[in-house]
Amino acid sequence: MLGLAWIAAAAAQTQIDLSTQAKKVDFSNASSTKPLQVGSTLPGTCVTGQMFFKSDAPAGANLYACTSANTWSVEGGGAGLTAAGDANYPMVSTDRAVYHTALTASRTDTLPAASAVNAGTAICEIDRAGLLTSAITLRVAPHGSDSINGAASGPLLETTYAGACFLSDGSSNWTVMSDAASIVSGYGVLCSLVSGIAQCSADTSVMLTRLQAASWADVTVVDGGSGGTAFGGCPPGVTPPLTTYMEVELIPAHSSTGGAATFNYCSTGAAGLFEADGATNPSAGEISAGQKAAVWYDASGHWRLKAKPGGTGSGSGATVNPPTAGGIAYGASSTAYATTGAGTAKQIVLAGGSGPPALIDFPDVKIIPAANNNGGAAGAGWSLPGSGGFAAAARGGANNIGGVLQGTPSTGAYGTFDFELPSDWDLAMQPYIKIFYGSGSNTSGTVIWTVSSACSKGDGSGSDDAAWVTESAMPAQIMTTANRDWAQSAQFTNLTAGNNCSAGSHARIKVAVSGTATLSVNVEMATITVPRLLTVQGN
Question: 81-208 sits in which CATH class?
């Protein structure tokens, strides 16, 4: 029985606590060992000294240690690697590759002064621990007044395992060598870390897009043409492909000599070089040696000079007359630009068709009907005197059933109406009046219209029964046919400040008819056109 009990006890003892039951453990002869916990997600809790193998991390950055309660840090490293903590890190001149062991918020690391290292020295920033996300990012900034790629700020790293390397010019600028996040911005280069080393690949479709986009931007070409009327060259570095509407800043080695000219972009073939109209050859000296000439590639396979203000100097391509301050620019011809005069503030632009545009006041037209007709009962729209005035009547036509004011020119008649001179009335311009009337039964005789005005300011300074000021009479109109519509107009001359007529004032208008016609004419309406310099709620 004792033997059986011993065997049972021995069989039950299958697990050994190495921390208390082992001494000088040697696994060198074991067929295999697997001492670490393995997974793609770090445990949420840990105790100091605990280890973990992160299977989805780049080779060389898989091993993590619990450096304090519930805090994991990537372990291992390589030559030149500098580990930064969970804070902004100011790099020093001896750093060569910097990474953060932990990040709980976005940080900014600052490069050392470019002058603190030799020209050609490179320093890299890498997300060795795979900590970066779109929410937790890492910005690399230049030191003091230094620049990165000529700018005051550097790239933003925002994708896991992103990295960027910077090359010093030994003076004041760092150049980005590789940028793992750059593919996000569309540069077509993707970099990642393998065993602590940045490896990059190219996305050719993205790079082609960048090249095509660059072809629309200004590209500087130093002329290497054969002289005379031939120009040519290619921009340094990456060459944008030749595409329609691309622009090039040509720095010619010689001046144009007149006559037919050509431009050969990056050995694509000599194409005609013309002025802005696409037909005229550049004149002698129009393209000046050493002076930039802006040219662009048109849809016809030709190069054209771009216009420059002033119409002088290389690359003018078209005459641009010196502008007038406040004027409106317009195409004076197919090869010349011009500007209008400055005009008056708040005027509006009136298209001139093939001619120049004009600046005019806004024409505010006010319609004052003379009368109305309601079922045969005519009513006056204007004010009429007790005697000597027009009389309201229905036109009584088959189609025209409107009301009219009737008066006989040979005996005379008149009526009055009121309107407001707007508060934004252009005081430098007098309003216009137009009278619409029918000849009635008259087939002979003349009709003459006379207009008078009277104004009051509305501030209590003048009488509400101001005397009439007579305007010049309109030309006599001869009546020849019955029931014909006529219209006559004139411009006021006496709506002036001296007659209490000002912007915002009350104007009364008297319209009188005279002449030799012996039968009634039919007054239909009058219109007043006031020139305004428009102001919001100007009334």
Answer: mainly beta
